[in-house]
């Protein structure tokens, strides 16, 4: 304990204060000064905590910042998506990785197609004016694909579509949907059971779109084949003639399976070209079914350029088979000079030697005055020779090229028809067209 005032003064030095004299300070001020005097040197005051009123404001600010950031990201994504969508849109046509759809001027969907041989890599797609092209599939396989917009007239919009595989050995398949039951489609091939409009039954794997025997199979194609289909909703599609075309269907999903391939098929690739198939076609939409059909007919199908001879209208066209069957006697029935069609048994009963039946047509090769009274005259002859015919045996021995031959070229290709098994005449060969050993055939061709 300090004993004198001097020691006390040295232990507690007097602090200078501005303002009031120290002796006049109140007790609270003196206590505060004393406390301040004895604080340690490393003391740092605690940071003031935000009041409860500020916490909601800070949370709102953070949330607002996150929302702004999300809006910026969404806008950037939307802009990229919008530019991509614009790049893939082709004036009423919307392309996606798995196919495309087409709308009419009323924004109604009138055509839809799906890619069944692979999806597109949309990032590989680019646009050059009216041409939209893609170079890769979704799994990275190279290909050549494009859709070109063509507007031939104000009321018609067309799209040229082409999918070509870069490597040989693959098949290209697209599924064309017929839509709901209210949409009717017409065209295609003659079938054993002909439905008009098209009515699909069951499922059929794509088969070569070539003439076949409709009596051999319910799915076989007949003699009338057109790679053309027309919809009651004013949409039409025409598959190009260069395509190794195969057609199948699926009644469950109401779709036609359009396929191009070079394996397991009678189609062969062009000479010097790889067997890489291409499926190409044109799809057109119009204001109504009549106008679009007229446009497609003018664009793709030829029609007569001249008016037939007046005799074709003035004189009737007779078919002896319908009324008289095999017993034909032109003189006794007083036929005039109109067009005559003799359908059956012009040749010998075997229908295999291509010789006139001399019982029905005696001295026909001399063709005296009777020929003049029968003009114009048509003979209906089977272009086949049965294997039991002597002419068939001679043709095989001579290898003269009169018959269509099997792939090796050594033997005639045999087919089954209602008169047995025979070979088909090859009218592309000069010997088959000019041989005097086949009188009725020569008459037909001359």
TrEMBL record:
Keyword set includes Metal-binding: no
An example Gene Ontology biological process: skeletal muscle fiber development
Tree of life domain: Eukaryota
One GO MF term attached to the UniProt entry: hydrolase activity, acting on glycosyl bonds
Record's keyword annotation contains Transmembrane: yes
Residue intervals passing through the bilayer: 57-80
Keywords: Glycosidase, Hydrolase, Membrane, Transmembrane, Transmembrane helix
Cited PANTHER family: GLYCOSIDASE FAMILY 31, MYOGENESIS-REGULATING GLYCOSIDASE
Name used for this protein in its record: Myosis regulating glycosidase
Species whose genome carries this gene: Rhinopithecus bieti
